[in-house]
Amino acid sequence: MIGLAAAGIGFAAAQSPAFFRIGTGGTAGTYYPIGGLIANAISGAGDKGVQGLVATAVASNGSVANINAIQGGSMESGFSQSDVAYWAHSGTGLYEGKGKVEDLRLIATLYPETIHLVARKDAGIKSVADLKGKRVSIDEPGSGTIVDARIVLAAYGLSESDIKAEHMKPGPAGERLRDGGLDAYFFVGGYPTGAISELATSAGISLVPITGPEADKMLSEYKFFSKDTVPADTYQGVGETPTISVAAQWVTSAKQSDDLVYNITKVMWNDATRAALDAGHAKGKMITLQNAVTSLGIPLHPGAERFYKEAGVLK
């Protein structure tokens, strides 16, 4: 740290880490490569990035693990679904009875993670209400998906006892669907997702719309949801499907210095980072300055907020 202070870098080295870790997800998912692009962009090297900062993307078990690491001080920042970040900050949902992570703050909302309700083509499921009595996987206990699935079911007047609930991860659920042992399953993630694309091609699927007054009520009640649409032919043979999404978000702790987070946010939205995101990953193009301040289920970090006000995207 002394060397950094002596180098006269542009933010208070005494308060700020030289290293800024970004907790991501598994190496096969979307969080990890996006995290790598962002870490590379904000690292101070030559005339780019935040001078004196070394940022790294770290593989992890995803949203909950990242929030726990930020809370415990083993990560400076991380990616999380907007629903999980909201539950952590408010002590609800997955964090019911576990206490609030009150220091959790938002740097930027990144891109939508779409709620897919994947059904067997011949299962006759046209609406969420049609899931009654059907064999449906709502993911494993402890996952963000299971909490979202229960919210969606409740909006359409159903509970877990109204369906034949299975608790499987999306991969095994897709295999069971193909074999005829399952009628539908919930999956939360960016489209197109490889496993569903493969299922659509090999077995044929339908995507069940999550729309209408029930969806509108969810959107007004839960600020971490947004309207979303899966475009036609994203998955073979599946038409345009209205649904809802949560957002992938980059979160940090209120303990991180305002100047540091301001500088990081400023670099995140410069032209060089824009070019790197556009070229580096299919989801990169969806990460925009306009979307950065949407799905605000938790407070913005004051450093990020200052930048967004200067940039004119926040009043």
UniProtKB/TrEMBL annotation:
Superkingdom to which the source organism belongs: Bacteria
Annotated signal peptide: none
This protein's name: TAXI family TRAP transporter solute-binding subunit
InterPro entries linked: TRAP_TAXI (IPR011852)
Species whose genome carries this gene: Neorhizobium petrolearium
UniProt xrefs under CDD domains: PBP2_TAXI_TRAP (cd13520)
